[in-house]
Amino acid sequence: MARVVVTGGAGFVGARLVRRLLESGDEVVVVDDLSAGSAAAVPPGARLHRGDVRDPGWAPALEGAERVFHLASPVGVRRAHQQGAAVVRAIVEGGMVVADLCRERGLPVLFTSSSEVYGRGPTGVDASPRWSYAVGKLAVEHLLLAADAGLPSVHVARLFNVVGPGQRPGDGHVLPTFAGAAAAGRPLPIHGDGGARRVFLHVDDAVDALCLLAATPALAGRPIDVGSDEELSIQALAERVAARVAGATLAHVPAQGVFGPGFVQIERRLPDLRPLRGIGWAPRHTLDQAITAALSEAGCPS
Ligand SMILES: NC(=O)c1ccc[n+]([C@@H]2O[C@H](COP(=O)([O-])OP(=O)(O)OC[C@H]3O[C@@H](n4cnc5c(N)ncnc54)[C@H](O)[C@@H]3O)[C@@H](O)[C@H]2O)c1
């Protein structure tokens, strides 16, 4: 049994991770400001320390801790595009405090970065607000991984799209958005022509990967992709959801209208799963299970 601190443990991925850690006998302290997550999402048995990771006042939550999972972060492409400076600041300031507190205590840390850091193929990321989230995540990767960071053990998980139970609608995530539209009898809104291809990993498979990574020293010290390699287009995802709901229809809406001017759509992005598969990780859930959960949570059992 270990005492583990999970920042962002009241959120979608964090709460599932906390549940898993509790099941494996760990004692868990959640540090979350509830800006997006909710106290109700924190699994019973975990202690919630309500606080902003950017304010080192949460340091007492680390007493007796053996490991930190740092997930707390603003999320959502729309938010990143529209509030660029605020998003970079929030991610970097939180990462700085986590790096400092873990260095002072010699604590291992796992940080959830994002596939967004890959930007748009060869052009990468630039200073436009579209990439604020990616820039913030990359900065924190460096803060933690650099040779002079002084941390004993750092794992960086670059998460690709995660889906499944507990993912809230309203943050712009595609599956809850489609499920919510289907439940409300509205057309499922597809941004652009729907040709963009994505991979979707069930949250419990992501949690498997995070736990396995944290327990594998050989994969510390460099970013590791965490995602699915089953690619499908947004159009195909919409059709798969719509096929489960009688009378559901699709509508194409311009992405610029949703995100604002200058939004750049990523057409394709695939993880390199060799490192994770090399340590025995494999997904155990299907996309259809995530679709079922999203429809059920939207009040639309299929
Ligand atoms: N869900 C995905 O598809 C996905 C993809 C790539 C990366 N990630 C990363 O995984 C992590 C978890 O994402 P999620 O989907 O569960 O998001 P989420 O919004 O559900 O969870 C984030 C949690 O962090 C908390 N939080 C935000 N800012 C905070 C702050 N300053 N101090 C304390 N708490 C704060 C929120 O209240 C929320 O509970 C994040 O780091 C995110 O960037 C997620």
Walk me through this protein's architecture.
By secondary structure, the chain is an alpha/beta fold. It folds into 2 domains: 3-161 and 201-226, 3-Layer(aba) Sandwich (Rossmann fold), CATH 3.40.50; 174-198 and 230-297, Alpha-Beta Complex (UDP-galactose 4-epimerase, domain 1). The protein contains 10 helices and 13 strands. It has helices at 12-23, 77-82, 84-105, 132-145, 174-184, 203-214, 234-242, 255-259, 274-278, 287-297; strands spanning 3-7, 27-32, 47-50, 67-70, 109-114, 154-159, 162-163, 188-191, 197-199, 201-202, 223-226, 231-233, 250-253. Strands 3-2-1-4-5-6-11 form a 7-stranded parallel β-sheet, with helices on both faces. Strands 7-10 form a two-stranded parallel ribbon. It has a two-stranded parallel ribbon with strand order 8-13. The N and C termini lie far apart (40 Å). Nicotinamide-adenine-dinucleotide binds next to α1, α3 and β5.
